Amino acid sequence: MDWKTLQALLSGVNKYSTAFSRIWLSVVFVFRVLVYVVAAERVWGDEQKDFDCNTRQPGCTNVCYDHFFPISHIRLWALQLIFVTCPSLLVIMHVAYREDREKKNREKNGENCPRLYSNTGKKHGGLWWTYLLSLFFKLIIEIVFLYLLHKMWDSFDLPRLVKCSKVDPCPNTVDCYIARPTEKRVFTYFMVGASSICIVLTVCEIFYLIFKRVVRSVQKWKKSTKRSVSYSKASTCQCHLKTEEKDNKSQTRCVA
């Protein structure tokens, strides 16, 4: 898998991201992708070869391995990293769509025509919703993969000894031994911790975006109310001036 290409694509998201998203991207590539490529792949590289069972029954070792490892940790993490980074591409695609609309607008109406967007990368309107939706997708994917990891291997634990029973073609209960379980357990906890940090950062960013949107809406509402109040005061003053002018004219006529 070419992680450099994925990193190059996601680096463009930094231009349209908040500080939380930049930290999230750093955690993903430093503490997850880098650890995955440098160390985790080597730790799990020999898992099936060194999965040893105390039986010579043909096919029993392979069946027991498939029973306890329906999907390898390393492949599950690879899928998780791919799925969790894909929602960020929605933001890039939306910005590219805006830039294409802006370009077509200039070609049609000339270079001096009014711009459709003050800033194509600014999170307003539809882009804000796209960005928020991508964060929810990230959050759901992270939680689903953590649940799968916990469901398949209870409490993310890898015991030294597993017992394979009532699985054909194994004749009876078979003891199987996982290769380097302590080392694999350490990497599992590390990857789960990094994923938990990413979940916390994503939740913080969601609350930050919503809070910022609410504050901006309240400020606009206050400005609109101030304008309406000032307009009503100005209209009231003009009405008083007109009535005073009419009273003065009527008084001069009576004196005359």
TrEMBL record:
Any single Pfam family the record assigns to this protein: Connexin
Keyword Transport attributed: no
Top-rank lineage group of the source organism: Eukaryota
Main subcellular localisation: other
SMART domains: CNX, Connexin_CCC
Membrane-topology annotation of the record: Multi-pass membrane protein
Gene Ontology molecular function, alphabetical: gap junction channel activity
Membrane spanning residue stretches: 20-39, 77-97, 128-149, 187-211
Annotated ranges, domain Connexin cysteine-rich: 141-209
Compartments (UniProt record): Cell junction, Gap junction; Cell membrane
One GO biological process term: cell-cell signaling
Gene Ontology CC entries for this record: connexin complex
Keyword Cell membrane among UniProt keywords: yes
Residue ranges of every copy of the Connexin N-terminal domain listed in the record: 42-75
Keyword vocabulary terms for this entry: Cell junction, Cell membrane, Gap junction, Membrane, Transmembrane, Transmembrane helix
Quaternary assembly: A connexon is composed of a hexamer of connexins.
PANTHER family for the chain: CONNEXIN (PTHR11984), GAP JUNCTION BETA-3 PROTEIN (PTHR11984:SF65)
Record's function text: One gap junction consists of a cluster of closely packed pairs of transmembrane channels, the connexons, through which materials of low MW diffuse from one cell to a neighboring cell.
Family: Belongs to the connexin family.
Listed name of the protein: Gap junction protein
Native source species: Alca torda
Taxonomic lineage: Eukaryota, Metazoa, Chordata, Craniata, Vertebrata
